[in-house]
Amino acid sequence: MEQQLEGRLAFGLFTSINGEGASLPEDALYEILPRLPAKDLCRLRAVCRPWRSLLSDPNFIAAHAARHPDQPLLVVVGYQACKKNGPVICDVVDLSGRVVKRVHAAGYDDGIRTNDRWVRLVMCTHADLVCVADHGFAMSCQLLNLATGAVHTLPNGVAPKHAAQVQEQATDLSCYDCLWIVFGLVPSIGKYKVLRLVQAVEDSGNDTDMEEEDDLDDPATLDLYEVLTIDGSGQASWRGTQPPPYDLESAYRDSSAVTGGIAYFMLPDDCWDYDGTELGLVGSFDLEREKWRSSIRGPTSGYRATTLKDIKIASLSGHLALCCCRASSSSMDIWFLKDFHKGSWVKQHSIKVSLLHVPNVAQPLLMLNDERIEGHIESWAVLENYIQKIDINKPQMKRYVAVGLYGGNILSLANRILPSS
Amino acid sequence: MEVDKGKGEAEETRKVAEADRDTVTLKSSDGKLFEVSKEAAARLSTVLAGMIAGGSIDDNGTDLKQIGSEALENVVDYCNKHANSIPSAALISSSISFNTAPFKEPEEWERKFVDRLSHDALFDLVEAANFLGMERLLDVTCHKISEMMKGKSPDQIREVFNIKNDYTKEELEEIRQELAWAFYDD
């Protein structure tokens, strides 16, 4: 029978060993291959060139994604790329910790920016986009599309309104520093918007001389909140927006989450007390309307947080999730925000976590669909182990500075392996 | 399933009979004749449905020169089995190059039907199903082939499907390194 097989399958999509016959229609391969999971398809790119072409085709990938709504979970682990750490700006890893894609910082490999001062770091991630910035003068920001390799450089400078305001009010402030930046998809317009806090500061070069000057009357810094719409035209510019009705100056990098076109922020610990009863716990910005919303409190019952580091917010399954660790019972409760206006939370999950892991509990990343929860709890632990592993067992790897769920397509991500033949 | 048509029957008788018959006769490339329910053929094959509607069915056996007797026997077998299973089994939508409709899982009897086939017979059946526009049978056979591909290494795929490796050794090594994660089992 093996003899008879020779030359049987020749779709025109590949060459059979003896180059004979075209006994199976090409349609059949189009019907067969989309049924395979993405991981198999990535591996089968090594079968032959025509297969690689088909399996890398954007139309094929889109059709495959439509027929496989449950994509494998991938995590973006962002680093700081610098002379000390090396050129890797981020890794995309699967839940076993295997690197699916390693991304180098632009400008590193070609030697343009390898000086000691230069550090590029991942600020935040969303879907298949990663936001990277120059550390220290983080005004230079780029959105990196991991699947296509496209780099979208955000405009330099601040909103014209802010530039004028700084010039008018605080002439001694001559430098800008970006304290944080978040971005997310606005579903109603199908575009991404970016929100950032820029601080106008004194030129650091004068610091030593000016240090003892009386700066009680004049603010040493000026906070500027700005929004940008990514419309792909390259013509976008920053727009000034109102400051929030709460303090977000000291928001942590990992204390924000974007879901449903709303950017949420954990408020600094002086904005809430231990019961979460008097002041708000979570602030938010409506990216579509470009308006701040009033802060909301945490869950009022069954909720006790000892310190801020025991609470993280995250975007899970399209909900804002509040994750509270309870060291006493080695568990993490995950609350979903059910109604923003009522400020009502529902305890959706309670996950057992190892005591050892509690102190550096990661921002939960994984979708917790009810039918898939078991596997994902497990994966969550694996993921955390992975993060520890890269710190401990692989000294050549850097400390991560940002972690996010990769929302793109694994077949697109693994594209561009070889230059096209 | 194969029938031996006597040659003594009169032409007139046959034509009258043809209109009333509830089966059609199909002739394979190697001249063997098979009889299949007209209703099932029309329902499962767009090509046969067109021929029946257009009156181009030959009572002596409609020539299907592209299909060998083994594959045609399987086609007819499938049609008969299908007719005996749930009658309302829906056909999948017509497939174009990049179909986006959700996959319809084969039924138990359909799995068994393709599981017993050799690779050779399976590939022939794909070809026959495609030629006759039998969407559901194409679906079932392609599902089986995709199952055969799952978890296989590129080497194994090339061997089973007789595909020439047109990569250089260096290129292959580069792909293996780049896609190392995809070469591990979960």
TrEMBL record, chain A:
Entry-linked Pfam families: F-box-like, FBA_3
Domain F-box, chain residue ranges per copy: 18-64
Matches recorded under SUPFAM superfamilies: F-box domain
Record-linked CDD domains: F-box_AtFBW1-like
SMART domains: FBOX (SM00256)
PANTHER family attached to this UniProt entry: BNAA05G37150D PROTEIN-RELATED, OS07G0196600 PROTEIN
Protein name: F-box domain-containing protein
Organism of origin: Digitaria exilis
TrEMBL record, chain B:
Residue segments, region Disordered: 1-21
Keywords noted in UniProt: Ubl conjugation pathway
Matching SUPFAM superfamilies: POZ domain, Skp1 dimerisation domain-like
GO biological process, one term: jasmonic acid mediated signaling pathway
Pathway: Protein modification; protein ubiquitination
Gene3D superfamilies: Potassium Channel Kv1.1, Chain A
Coiled coil (UniProt feature): none
Assembly: Part of a SCF (SKP1-cullin-F-box) protein ligase complex.
UniProt family annotation: Belongs to the SKP1 family.
Protein name (database record): SKP1-like protein
Organism: Digitaria exilis
